[in-house]
Design brief:
- By secondary structure, the chain is mostly beta strands.
- It has 2 domains: about 250 residues, Neuraminidase; about 45 residues, no CATH class.
- It is about 10% helix and about 35% strand.
- It is built from 4 helices and 21 strands.
- The strands form 5 sheets. A 5-stranded mixed β-sheet has the order 8-12-11-10-9, with no helix packed on it. Strands 3-2-1-21 form a 4-stranded antiparallel β-sheet, with no helix packed on it.
- α3 packs antiparallel against α4.
- The longest helix is centred in the last third of the chain and has 13 residues.
- The two termini are about 15 Å apart.
């Protein structure tokens, strides 16, 4: 059995100041770079596994409800599920209203939605429809102040890596979608094993305990930062082949790939299948609030309709 939460082990790692892979890194971290010959890899709790090759990964995101991995190579969006021989190319992302091609540098999944960012005009936070591939701007920010790359979602907020040294400094940025604000919360880590330097960070993955992994595009280490504890953690070695030096890197957190399959009927995620799940789904289905990471589009066909209600009832009656 793969543990999906390692709060106690992470706390021990913080106290001891050590960073052994096996005792501090939960299963589910995904990494990739913009090289079709270098595999997208996932950490299973004890080692890195090659998941697939053949697609560049500028950004990575995971829908936990279906355990679908989304990635992009510039404007091209693709998806992959465990068991697939290779990713499926979905097509080209375009801007709502204009149809202009959109090359993204970071992806994240949260609140049942796929988010994206880009570091060329127009620099903004986007929501991308995985069915239509249309990207709509949620809000723009001052391009001269930020250079965002890696992107992930944790505890109701988007987080990004910022490579712009002025005016706020490079580091980890919290993005409040409701307030439409960006706040730098921590500087980039120091990579002790790589000469005590800081680096250009291109990817970001945040695990279930709020540990942010700073994904680089070169041989060496991944930095780590505990968001809940506001403390830098020791870096960990990365699995890239010697001499790897790319332009983009990506990360995501997908514990569903290395643990038991998710219980879809446990809609509210409390570990039980009961009336409260039915109540939560109905509220979501009727346009109310949805549990984090869940959507009323239960059958994942791009529509919310009677077929979703029927699919949920079938899953609910089947249980887990």
């Amino acid at each position: 059995m793969v543990l999906k939460s390692n709060r106690w082990l992470n706390a021990v790692a913080v106290m001891l100041g050590t960073a052994g892979l096996a005792d501090a890194q939960p299963a589910g971290i995904l990494i990739g770079v913009d090289d079709v010959t270098i595999p997208v890899r996932g950490w299973d709790g004890s080692q890195w596994n090659e998941l697939f090759v053949g697609q560049q990964a500028w950004g990575l995101a995971v829908d936990p409800a279906t355990c679908t991995v989304y990635g992009n190579s510039g404007s091209s969006l693709w998806k992959w599920n465990a068991g697939d021989a290779a990713p499926t190319v979905l097509g080209t992302m375009t801007l709502e209203g204009t149809g202009a091609t959109q090359a993204m540098v970071g992806l994240a999944w949260g609140n049942g939605r796929l988010y994206a960012i880009k570091n060329i005009a127009t620099e903004a936070i986007y929501e991308v429809d995985p069915q239509t591939l249309v990207a709509r701007i949620l809000f723009t920010y001052t391009a001269a102040d930020w250079d965002l790359g890696g992107l992930d979602f944790y505890n109701g907020f988007l987080y990004a890596t910022n490579d712009d040294a002025t005016p706020f400094g490079t580091g980890l940025v919290r993005i409040d979608l409701q307030a439409q604000t960006l706040t730098r919360i921590a500087p980039y880590p120091v990579f002790a094993g790589d000469g005590g330097t800081t680096k250009d960070i291109d990817g970001l993955a945040i695990d279930g305990d709020g540990i942010a992994y700073f994904i680089v595009d070169q041989t060496g280490e991944f930095g780590r930062y505990s968001i809940p504890n506001a403390i830098e953690l020791p870096p960990i070695p990365n699995p890239y082949p010697a001499g790897t030096s790319e332009t983009f890197a990506a990360g995501a957190f997908a514990p569903c790939l290395f643990g038991p399959p998710p219980c879809l009927a446990d809609f509210n995620g409390d570990g039980f299948v009961d009336f409260f799940d039915l109540d939560a789904f109905v509220e979501c289905f009727e346009g109310g609030s949805c549990p984090t990471g869940r959507s009323a589009d239960f059958n994942d066909d791009g529509f919310v309709d009677f077929f979703d209600l029927d699919a949920f009832i079938e899953a609910f009656e089947r249980g887990c």
